[in-house]
Specification:
This protein has 96 residues and is mostly beta strands. It is built from no helices and 8 strands. The strands form 2 sheets. Strands 1-8-3-4 form a 4-stranded antiparallel β-sheet, with no helix packed on it. Strands 2-7-6-5 form a 4-stranded mixed β-sheet, with no helix packed on it.
Amino acid sequence: MITIVVPFTTSISAGTEIDLSPYFTGEIRRIAKAILFTGSDATSPASATELTVVTGTPSSGQIQLVSSTSIKLGDAVDTKNILVLVVELWGEYVKA
């Protein structure tokens, strides 16, 4: 398994397909864990939310693996957000 860190440099609407290929080499087989970090600002403290992996269209608090290199989030994100993914790649052996 590998960890992929995705810093968002622009606002992205919920349900938009996000290409992850600039952040890693390979093809994702499954998402083991997804955490969305939101940085603090003058009105809100920093927070981290574990996202639920779904196979259909994601709702708030959920993430979908669309293809081996792209995802959709059920929440909008912006430059205050960082997504941390732990994924299993195709061809990778994971001991149970």
